[in-house]
Amino acid sequence: MTKSKAHDDPRVLGRGRKAGLPTLPAVCGSSRGLRMFLRTRKGVTSLVASGLLAASLGGALAAAPSAAAAAYPWCTSSAWTQSADTTWTTRPSTSSTDTTCVMAQGSTGAGVTSLQKALRHCYGRNIAIDGVFGPATKAALKYAQGRAGVSQDGEYGPVTRNAILWGRYSIETGAKVRCT
To answer: Would you tell me how many other CB atoms lie within 10 Å of the CB of residue 15?
Structure first.
């Protein structure tokens, strides 16, 4: 079963791990059992869908994950690919280099950095390349989604990945060659 980073996402667990996890003995038997259950995409999806997570947190649930977030793991890294024309590109990925993943406002890391580079270099958005998916990155992503003709929800997933332009960089110099 694929592990998900949803258990670290504050949108799913209120304030995240630092706030501590509630126990649901009826479902998991112990707080450790709950943590193990929540580490799976199925566990988070099941609890959110049943309303048990929101009830157990006493209303501390900030926002339920979107359908895309529940269906795919979070992007925590980036993967690069080299093409035959001596250029390379980088795209958000899971730690196992699977590029079928999601990000939204609040995400951080190398995957966000890859997305920010594409938004800046291919769409001319004046955003910081800092690895933090904040309001500016969300606005820039909505712009790129609009230009690509997909839903402008400000969340990154497989549809957005396939629709937006990505920078291609020279293997020799590292300079941007074009966006494709």
So the answer is: 11
